[in-house]
Design a protein that fits this description.
Elements: E1 2-5, H1 6-11, H2 13-22, E2 27-30, E3 36-39, H3 42-54, H4 58-73
Length: 84
Amino acid sequence: MLTTTISDFRKNIKKYLDNVTKDYETLIINRNKDKGVVVISLEEYNSLNATAFELSSRKNEERLDSAIKKLDSGNTFPKELIEE
């Protein structure tokens, strides 16, 4: 995680945005004592939204938990993908 001030961000915007997008860094820009802005890559943002959606219903959460338990216990089998 990177942190900077708004004035330093203005001076080095390209460098900071490159770090966010290329290295998947999270950037916190401090503006005032208790205020700030978080900058993340679009890919990271989309991933967080997808995770939030998957966990938004209890049924989806239970399915994911069940799949994780199967993986952890080794109770899995390979399956071929069907391409249409």
